[in-house]
Amino acid sequence: MELSNTSTLDFTKLFARATRDVIQNTTGQEIEVSKSAMSISGIQMIGEIGTFVSFKGDYSGIMVLNFEGAAALEIVVNSLIKMGLPEEDTPKHHSSDEVIGSMGELANQVVGRCRSLVEEKFDLSASAHIPSVVPIGVPIALTMATRNQAQLECVRVSFSTEKRNRFYMELALEPMLLSPLNV
User: Fold this and answer.
1) How many CB atoms are closer than 10 A to CB 15?
2) Which residues are within 8 A (CB) of 33 and not within 5 positions of it... i.e. 6 or more apart?
């Protein structure tokens, strides 16, 4: 499916903005967003830490945040320092429980902001499940139970931290077209 002809691109922009804004606010650091979204055949958890959360309602889908270890550690350390923790007391490795737990909370904040932006812009609502966090050894493909699996629209957006560490948001949505109703 051509993303430019559907609302998936509109949703992707909102989800990318929410991801950037939440991480910038949490860390006090600049986060760069790629200039384009990639249409992909399916979503997966890749990298060293992956989080995913599903949402269902007026629109349904799954959002995945995939982090290389260095990106996850940088984000968590910066957020803890911003909250006043001395740098010497911050985690030293991305696989620490504190980093893993913080990634789940971060995903929860991101999806909450995404839902708010969608409701504000389109007057559509969805509830989200509790995010899951998985340390990853091998890529894990995710899918949604839907009537027509082949019609799922999936995209990936790339982000980078101030230290140029990369992380990614992947989004799978049931297809939809949004048209203003003037009733």
Assistant:
1) 26
2) 16, 17, 19, 20, 157, 158, 159
Write the CB contacts of 47 (distance below 8 Å, at least 6 apart in sequence): 66, 67, 68, 69, 136, 167, 168
Calculate what percentage of the chain has a pLDDT beyond 70.
Answer: 89
Mean pLDDT of 3-14: 75
Which CATH number among 3.40.1550.10, 3.60.10.10, 3.40.50.920, 3.20.20.20 corresponds to the domain 3-173? 3.40.1550.10
168: left (phi > 0), else alpha (psi -120 to 50), else beta? beta
Please answer whether residues 108 and 130 qualify as being in contact, where contact means their C-beta atoms are separated by less than 8 angstroms. yes
pTM reported for the whole predicted model: 0.87
Q: pLDDT by residue (tens digit) across 31-74?
A: 999 999 999 988 998 989 999 999 999 998 999 999 999 999 99
What are the residue ranges spanned by the domains of the chain? 3-173
CB burial class (10 A; 0-12, 13-18, 19+) of residue 151? exposed
